[in-house]
Design goal:
The chain has 188 residues and is of the alpha/beta class. The protein folds into 2 domains: 5-15 and 70-187, 3-Layer(aba) Sandwich (Rossmann fold), CATH 3.40.50.1000; 17-67. Helices cover 43% and strands 16% of the residues. It has helices spanning 17-29, 51-67, 75-85, 99-108, 122-128, 139-147, 174-187, and strands at 5-8, 15-16, 70-71, 87-92, 115-118, 133-136, 152-155, 168-171. The strands form 2 sheets. The chain has a 6-stranded parallel β-sheet with strand order 5-4-1-6-7-8, sandwiched between helices. It has a two-stranded antiparallel sheet with strand order 2-3. Helix 6 links the parallel strand 6 (133-136) and strand 7. The structure holds magnesium ion (MG). Residues 9, 11-13, 136-138 line the site of magnesium ion (MG). It is an enzyme of class 3 (hydrolase). Keywords: Hydrolase. GO terms for molecular function: 5'-nucleotidase activity. Its EC number is 3.1.3.-.
């Protein structure tokens, strides 16, 4: 029997989305931002774009952005290890338009999972599918989960450093992620 139900975000949690986005956003804008410039979760704002402009660029380059993203060190190995013992649900806020490239990318990188859901309402999804812990980088999900007393493992990024709460477990790499999972497992 699988022990914990773990929700796993993709962008900037399993894979380096920042580098891939910047490559194509720089191309679209003519600017040359570097990962060190990114201090905003909504980093399209660093290009001076509004949400409509972001959508146009994202719809044009999104396939390439997602296909060319690289997994973070040890993410694949540790997800393979977690999959042996736990239920893994990929929960990403990517739009349905990019469902196919997402599934193809996961297969290409040998990342195992039981379910995949594309939704922006991660809290609702985690409640209805009884997820025990979410691994994510987004500051707004960390705040939402903490308010509901639901544990979250926050994958450290420059834009989430101000989030702090007893129920938020911070991890700066995947070895730290699995240590938090083992700890939560020991409580269950
Ligand atoms: Mg993310």
């Amino acid at each position: 029997m699988l022990v914990l139900h773990i929700g796993v975000d993709l962008d900037n949690t399993v894979l380096d989305a920042t580098s891939s986005y910047l490559q194509y956003y720089n191309k679209a804008s003519g600017l040359s931002l570097a990962p060190a410039d990114v201090n905003d979760y909504y980093f399209y704002r660093l290009y001076g774009w509004d949400n409509e402009q972001r959508k146009t660029v994202y719809h044009k380059y999104g396939y390439d952005i997602h296909w060319n993203s690289k997994p973070f060190p040890m993410a694949v190995e540790i997800l393979q290890q977690l999959f042996e013992k736990h239920k893994i649900s990929i929960i990403t806020a990517r739009p349905l338009l990019f469902h196919e490239v997402t599934v193809k990318w996961l297969k290409h990188h040998n990342i195992p999972y039981h379910n995949i859901t594309l939704t922006e309402n991660k809290l609702q999804e985690c409640i209805s599918s009884k997820v025990d812990v979410l691994i994510d980088d987004a500051p707004h999900y960390a705040e939402e989960f903490a308010l509901q007393n639901k544990p979250i493992i926050l994958f450290e990024q420059p834009y989430n450093s101000s989030v702090s709460n007893d129920i938020v477990y911070r991890a700066s790499n995947w070895v730290q992620v699995i240590k938090h999972v083992d700890y939560l497992d020991s409580l269950s």
